[in-house]
Structures are given as C-alpha cells and as structure tokens.
Amino acid sequence: MPTGVSVAGRPFGDAQDVTITDDRQHPSRMLEVRDLHKTVAVGFRRRKVEILRGVDLEVRDGDVFGLLGPNGAGKTTTLKVVLGLMRPTSGSVTLGVRGLAQLGYLPENPYFYDYLTGAEFLGFAARLFSLDARERERRVAAILADVGLERAAGVQLRKYSKGMLQRIGIAQALINEPRLVLLDEPMTGLDPIGRVEVRQIIQQLHERGTTVLFNSHILSDVAALCTRIAIMRDGRVVWQGAVAEALSQSPAGDLEGFFMDVVRA
Amino acid sequence: MRVAAVAVNTFRETIRDRILGVIILFALAMIVASLWLASISLGQQDRMIKDFGLVAISLFGLIVAAFVAASLVRKEVEKRTVFIIFSKPVSRSEFIWGKFLGLAATMFTVLAGMTVFLFVLAWVVAKSPSGSLLLAGLLIYLQLLVVVAVTMLFATMTSAILASVWGICVYAAGQLSHNVLSLSRLGHSAVTHAASVFVFYLVPNLSAVDIRAAVVGEGAVAWTSLIAWGGYLIAYLVIALFVATWIFRRKEF
After folding, report:
1. What is the rounded distance in angstroms from the CA atom of residue A194 to the CA atom of residue A199?
2. B83 contacts in A (CB within 8 Å)?
3. B81 interface with A at CB cutoff 8 Å
4. Mean pLDDT of chain A
5. Among the listed residues A108, A213, A156, the one whose alpha carbon sits nearest the alpha carbon of residue B80
6. Fewer CB atoms near the end CB (10 Å): N or C, chain B?
7. Cβ contact B230:B142 at 8 Å
8. Which residue does chain A place closest to B12, by CA atoms?
9. What are the boundaries of each domain within chain B?
10. What is the ipTM for the molecules in this complex?
11. Chain A within 8 Å of B246 (Cβ-Cβ)?
12. Which domains does chain A have, with CATH numbers?
C-alpha cells in the first residue's frame, strides 16, 4: 500500500494531480523536501524573483519541528508548496502520509466565516474530509473539548476573541486526526495566556505521537516545544538539527544566540 | 459530498449576512411603493403593481447576485480562507461549484420570498392573482444565476469590485443584445451587423426569457421559445463555471 505523496511542479488540491509514491523505505520520514526552488514574477514588468533557492528539509515521525528564520526567509512559502497552494519551480516534496487527508494546517493570521458558529465551522471542516454525520459529531465534540471551546460552540465566530479564533483554527486543523500538522505562526498576536494555551495543545499533540511542524519567531516557545529545528535564510535552509545540538553550539547556551549566529554568518 | 459541504457553508454564511437583510427590506419597500404608483395610475393598478414589483425584484436580485458572487470568491482569496479549504482534500472545481450552488440556494430563498410577496400583494390589492407572475420570478432567477456564474468567472481573474461591475455590465448587455441585433439589421453596414451578431452570441441573451409583457397582459408566453432560451442560459452558466474552474485551477495562493 503506498503511503507517500510526491508533488513536483503541480498542485495536489485536485485529486488527479496527485502522484502517489511508495515511501515504505523510509518509515520514520514524515516530510522530505529536496532541492525546492520557487520563482515568482513581481511588479508590472513581471521581474522574476527566486524566493526558494534549493530548500532541503527532513521532518521525522513524532517530531515537533520548528521552522525558523527572519521575515522573507521563505518559511511560509515552503509550507504553501508542501500543501500544494503553490507550485514549485523545481524540486520535490515527499509526504509520509496519504496526502491531504492525513494532514492538518493552520495558516498565519487566519480569518474564518463570521456568521458560522464554532461547531458549524468545525462540522464544515469535517465534511470536507467526507466524514459521516455520527463521526463528525463525535470529532467536533472531542476537538472542542481539547481546545477548551465547548461553551463557545454555539457562538458565531465574529464574537470570538483572537485567542479563541486561534484555538478554533487549530481545532479545524486537527478535525481529521492528522498524523502531520503544519502550523504557520500559531503564537503570533496572542497574549501570554493564549500562547500558553497553544503551547499546551502542541505539547498534547506531541504526547499523542502527532508530528508537528510550525513556523515561529518566538524562540523561547521553540526551545520549549521542539525536538528539531531548521533555520532558513534567503530561501535556503542554513542549519538543521536537534534543539539540544543547537543549544550545545551556542556560547550562551540559548537558542536566541545560536539563531543570531547562524542567520548573520 | 464536498461540493454539498461548500454549498451548505456558503448558504449559511450568505443568508445570515446582515447586508442581505437590508437589501431584502429595501426590495420589499420598493414593491410596497408600487401601491402608491398604482393609486395614481387610473385603471392601471394591476399592471403597475406587477410591472414595478418585477423590476424591483430584478434590481435588488441583481445587486445580491453581482456583489455577493464577486465577494464569495475574492473574499476567500483575500482573507485567506482558501488556505483552510485547499489544505483539505477539496479540488478547485468542487470549491467553485459549491460556492455557486450555495449562492444559488440563497438567491432562490430571497427571490422566492420577494416573488410570493408580490403575488400576494397583487392578489389582495388588485384582486388579480396570476400564475405567470410566479413564472416571471422563476425566469428572473434564471437570469440572475447567469449573472452569478459570469461574476464568479470575473472574480477568478480580477478584484471583487471590478468583477461586480463586469457582472452588472453583462446583465445590462444581456437585456439589450436582442435590440442591438434588431437595430443593426436596419442599417447597411456589414461590419456593424457582423459586430452585432458577435456581441449577440458572446453575451447571454437575458431578454429572451423576460416575460414581463405577458404578465401585464401584453401578449402570451411563447413556451417553445422560452424552453429553448432557458436551455441556452443554463448551458451558458455551466460553460462560464467551467471556464472559472479552469482559471482557478491555475491560481497560486
């Protein structure tokens, strides 16, 4: 049975664009990105700008993986290519899961449907995975409890606070019980309580064996949560390895110092 | 299943939007205003209520069709809700068709409500219930579905406001295309006639299913022609949605 999905130069939002590859040779590999390039045309003259310049990335099964880098390094673009929202110019992405059905995603600063209630929105997300009514009901109730939003289930999303929206966003990413979860800046714009809540959710996912890949600028959260990290700069991964290894290479023994050394090198 | 999920979600989101409620209130107020026009039209009360009421339904239905259809696609792109949808196993065609069917359901609810209101008004005030009034409402719905499909097609290529303007332009052109073709036959320029024929086939001939004249007693409904042109408009909207899907599949977010 094939377990991997490869994408090269095509989106796989449409089923006919998916190329299934057998990935059993690497059972511990959840995501592998090889020599990924992405060029976009910008401005009136359609000037070509290369925003990914050969990204290599490997996320293993069970990792909480932090993707770090300054603004414009290519972190979000890499995630978009992995999801098929953007087509790579060249390179390959291999997933250790059966396509989008086993994958969850939370975009940066997500916007949701104002006039839907939390429960309706999660029900909608569940229907996109073709779950039957009973299973949808079970999962919506369970996930609302997991993210602490049972009481707000019947409230329209326009009345949610920023922290509640972030939690409902994570809930929709988990509705299909994914094996790999991609979170784009999940702590951005949250107050300290909201950050702690999101950290707890990521910690719970790790304890359940779910692989999590997230972007963040908040290095203390990365140090506290991640098992492995990659640091991107100018469209490339310039360092990749275990958090413990990064800390051991830092003169001050902190992730911030190591990060600054790597991006300034 | 996924098309239905997107459609149900779109229906819920649009039907609860407060702006839609305001538009419906204005439309109902305008239909009621036809009573005043009827009161100053000696011997023409029945005709004024029906004619003015159908114009109000068309006008406010057009506002909903053009503006909501454009925002349905563009808003999802601009506010990045498409990231959430396309990170799940949903194809671009399922998204476009789901959005269309959801708005079609909303439009049906809105237009059915307004048409029944007008029917009851004509019945109670002018003592003249007319089945053709309900048929006229249904045909206005068909015209507006074409506007929804065309506006969605434009929304895959340009901004929401431009897509709405284009949608309204297509509606206006669709109401006039038959007249333009007739007028060009009166002239002697082969170029003008050829251009008119081209425009006639390019824009949807919406006036072909307009039965307002029959509703107010000027002529009868030509069923054969109505069925043929109705089929043509359904084919037109299906093609517009296929083109929208084809363009949307090439989009990167």
Report:
1. 9
2. 80, 83, 85, 105, 107, 110
3. yes
4. 87
5. A108
6. N
7. yes
8. A116
9. 2-249
10. 0.82
11. no
12. 4-264 (3.40.50.300)
Q: Nearest by CB to A115, from B12, B89, B91: name it.
A: B12
pLDDT in tens, B206-250: 998 988 888 877 778 888 999 999 999 999 999 999 999 999 998
Residues 73-92 (A) with a CB less than 8 A from some CB of B: 80, 83-87
How far does the CA of residue B228 sit from the closest CA of chain A (Å)?
35
The residue to which tokens 């602490």 are assigned: A148
d(CA A130, CA A132): 6
Q: Buried b vs exposed e over A140-169: b needs ≥16 C-beta within 10 Å? A: beebbebbebeebbeebbeebeebbbbbbb
Quote the CA–CA distance of A179 and A61 in Å, as a whole number.
9
Chain A residue with Cα closest to B245: A14
Q: What is the mean pLDDT of residues A65-75?
A: 94
Would the pLDDT of A202 be above 90?
Answer: yes
B 12-51 → A contacts, CB under 8 A: 12-13, 16-17
Cβ atoms of A139 and A188 within 8 Å: the answer is no
